[in-house]
């Protein structure tokens, strides 16, 4: 029997959906998000918050690379599947080093350098696969080779950061993030290729919902150490309600409209739109979810007490950041401002010092009422347009 020739890679086409191996990879990354929450919970300080947010952003930047790769070629075929399994192992190593990335524990390998080396290895594998994927697309090859410059610079900074501590160390880590973001911003996005708008949008939607799920897990782990009581039950209902409003705010209409905008954009516009709307603006959404989870962990630990203003700032500020990211997301996609989300995002920041004077459970209740009120207002005010968009009867934008 003749054996059919097979090409090393299979390109993706419009209409492709997210593969199970991509979802598997996402779960490994989101475990790192959970580790970031634990890192910030253990370092209850501004420096700890900076550590967590920079680490989260670097993890995001690794994930972003594979979201673009999976939109060009089928990553569940042939040897690329094996390469992704190797990436999963390396990312899991990165995840395990996060608690020690800034404060190494004696007796083992030096965690800050393990993080730096593994971070570089993941980037090298990504660049190699992108070069393979773009062997027939000159623009992708050129842009991918340019990524080696920030990867090398970031590796050097992370290795140096491993020899320092405190704010100097945090500054060097922040420098790696500036290099990563700056490089992607400077490189001509038209050199990239977006093969399947639906796949790209779905991939980012899934990382949002997985992050929401992991935030619930992170909260639940802390709750499991406490005896069941009525305050715990009430706080659990309120906490789930807040998470549900974040899910609704994204998936009810926003995700549908954004995918439609990306799908309808001209081919030469799609890469830049995808970079801005998804690569850049989904990061603050993820950061907002992680901060919200951290804030809820603190609420459950002090239900009958007043939370410090810093803890309220994390809880309310996380949800506010999530909403501000949505405002920017809509502005970038359809050039209009979401007034009600702007108002609520601002209100949450204003209420931080006020809610620091009430109990943690009451502060969570206030947040829940505000977010449920926002969702109820949008569902009622845009009822007809929302129905038409969700049922594919119009491409109008709310």
Write up this protein:
- The chain is built from 17 helices and no strands.
- It starts with 19 loop residues before the first helix and ends in an 8-residue tail after the last helix.
- The protein folds into 2 domains: 11-70 and 72-193, no CATH class; 196-398, I/LWEQ domain (Up-down Bundle), CATH 1.20.1410.
- The longest helix has 27 residues, at 197-223.
- Helix content is 75%, strand content 0%.
Specify Rg, calculated over alpha carbons. Answer: 22 Å
Low-confidence stretches: 1-5
Largest sheet: none
Shape: globular
> How would you state the average pLDDT, rounded?
90
The count of DSSP E runs of length 2 or more, i.e. the number of strands, is 0
Topology order in helix (H) and strand (E) letters: HHHHHHHHHHHHHHHHH
Helix content: over 70%
CATH topology type of the largest domain = I/LWEQ domain
CATH architecture designation of the largest domain: Up-down Bundle
Q: How many helices in DSSP terms?
A: 17
- The termini sit apart by 58 Å
Percent strand equals under 5%
Domain count: the total is 2
CATH class of the largest domain: Mainly Alpha
Content-based structural category? mainly alpha
Features:
398 residues, 0% strand, globular, single chain, I/LWEQ domain, disordered N terminus, mainly alpha, 17 helices
Entry summary:
The protein is mainly alpha-helical and 398 residues long.
């Amino acid at each position: 029997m003749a054996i059919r020739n097979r090409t090393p890679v299979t390109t993706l086409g419009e209409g492709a959906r997210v593969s199970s191996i991509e979802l598997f990879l996402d779960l490994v990354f989101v475990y790192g998000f959970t580790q970031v929450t634990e890192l910030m919970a253990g370092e209850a300080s501004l420096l700890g918050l900076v550590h967590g947010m920079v680490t989260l952003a670097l993890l995001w930047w690794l994930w972003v690379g594979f979201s673009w790769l999976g939109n060009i070629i089928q990553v569940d075929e042939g040897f690329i599947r094996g390469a992704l399994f190797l990436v999963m192992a390396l990312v899991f190593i990165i995840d395990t080093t996060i608690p020690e990335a800034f404060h190494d524990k004696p007796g083992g390998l030096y965690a800050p350098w393990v993080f730096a080396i593994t971070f570089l290895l993941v980037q090298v594998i990504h660049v190699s696969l992108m070069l393979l994927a773009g062997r027939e697309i000159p623009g992708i090859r050129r842009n991918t080779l340019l990524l080696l410059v920030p990867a090398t610079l970031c590796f050097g900074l992370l290795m140096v950061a491993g020899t320092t501590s405190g704010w100097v160390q945090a500054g060097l880590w922040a420098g790696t993030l500036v290099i990563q973001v700056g490089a992607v911003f400077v490189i001509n996005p038209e050199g990239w290729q977006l093969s399947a708008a639906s796949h790209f949008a779905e991939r980012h939607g899934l990382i949002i919902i997985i992050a929401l799920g992991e935030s619930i897990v992170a909260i639940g782990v802390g709750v499991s150490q406490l005896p069941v009581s009525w305050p715990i039950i009430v706080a659990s209902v309120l906490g789930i309600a807040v998470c549900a409003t974040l899910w609704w705010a994204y998936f009810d209409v926003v995700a549908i409209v954004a995918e439609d905008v990306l799908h309808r954009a001209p081919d030469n516009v799609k890469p830049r739109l995808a970079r801005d709307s998804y690569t850049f603006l989904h990061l603050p959404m993820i950061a907002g979810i992680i901060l919200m989870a951290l804030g809820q962990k603190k609420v459950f630990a002090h239900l009958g007490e007043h939370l410090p203003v810093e803890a309220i700032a994390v809880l309310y500020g996380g949800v506010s950041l999530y909403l501000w990211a949505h405002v920017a997301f809509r502005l970038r996609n359809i050039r209009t401002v979401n007034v009600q989300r702007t108002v609520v995002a601002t209100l949450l920041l204003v209420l931080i010092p006020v809610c620091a004077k009430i109990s943690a459970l009451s502060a969570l209740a206030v947040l829940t009422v505000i977010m449920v009120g926002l969702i109820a207002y949008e569902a009622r005010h845009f009822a007809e347009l929302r129905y038409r968009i969700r049922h594919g009867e119009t491409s109008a934008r709310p």
